[in-house]
Specification:
Length: about 280
């Protein structure tokens, strides 16, 4: 049985875990906060943005990109804490983000409004280059969610939650995407936030099935960590990148009396694993 440690408790809808310089950064969508927590559980709010979703990614120069979904903008948090506009995405409704080693930011968006019960329509992925230019580089993804870039920078993997699969693209020299293929069919798995390890396996968090799963290319399951609430995202970090950090919360759905996530049920979890992390995030 994997020993899962509760690093932080009492949060809301927690998402987008990112390891950076000795601390785990994550977002609490319920409070509109980006929070850093160290391995002793000491936490600090590092940014506040009125946005839902509220996902983040680190640029190679050490600045933090924050998806301001409601504004349709990518914000850049500098080391002094100031926020500036990094790129204008053109419309609201953006979801997850990952940045490659060249500073290319991939941001995805649903094709429908999940909260209003609008009929599903395929979503897409946009690229924001370091100079702030934005263009669409992929579409036709039923529910684009978590994303990761392989260690060699050659491949972008996208979680398609509604299709229960991971989709891969080749990353071209100009940042464009080609060679779309199914990286893994997941059966009943519903992937949310993902990360990659040094064996080129993917960990994905799963809200409805309350677990975090490690799969090889093709879909073979290598390991499963069962949770007592929905797993929203995961990342490998820690001093040797052998700690799997999972952000999890109870999921009540959009018709829940206090919102989709009951207040105080969001947790940051940590479990030691054998294979270290690789790639981004």
């Amino acid at each position: 049985m994997d020993k899962v440690k509760v690093l932080l408790d009492g949060r809301g809808l927690v998402e987008s875990p990112r390891w950076h310089e000795g601390r785990l950064y994550f977002s609490d969508w319920s409070s509109g906060e980006v929070i850093a927590v160290d391995l002793a559980g000491r936490d600090e709010v590092v940014a506040r943005v009125d946005s839902l979703p509220l996902c983040t990614a680190w640029l190679p120069d050490g600045d933090l990109l924050i998806v301001s979904s409601r504004e349709g903008k990518l914000l850049r948090r500098s080391s002094d804490g100031s926020l500036t506009v990094h790129a204008d995405l053109g419309e609201p409704g953006w979801n997850d983000i990952v940045v490659d080693d060249r500073g290319n930011a991939y941001v995805n968006r649903l094709g429908f409004d999940l909260a209003t019960g609008e009929p599903p329509k395929p979503g897409f992925v946009h690229l924001a280059t370091p100079d702030g230019r934005v263009r669409r580089v992929a579409d036709g993804i039923e529910f684009p969610n978590g994303m990761a870039v392989t260690a060699d920078g050659s491949t972008l993997i996208v979680a398609d939650s509604y299709a229960h699969r991971l989709v891969a693209f080749d990353i071209e020299p100009d940042g464009g995407l080609s060679g779309r293929r199914v990286w893994a069919d997941l059966g009943d798995g519903t992937p949310d936030g993902i990360c990659i390890d040094a064996a080129n396996a993917v960990w994905y968090a799963d809200v409805p099935n309350q677990r975090c799963v490690r799969v090889a290319e093709g879909g073979a399951v290598r390991q499963t960590i069962d949770l007592d609430r929905g797993g929203f995202a995961c990342v490998l970090g820690g001093p040797e990148k052998r700690t799997l950090f999972i952000v999890a919360a109870q999921w009540a759905g959009f018709s829940g009396p206090s919102g989709p996530v009951p207040p105080g049920t969001g947790q940051v979890l940590a479990v030691e694993v054998d294979v270290p992390g690789a790639g981004r995030p």
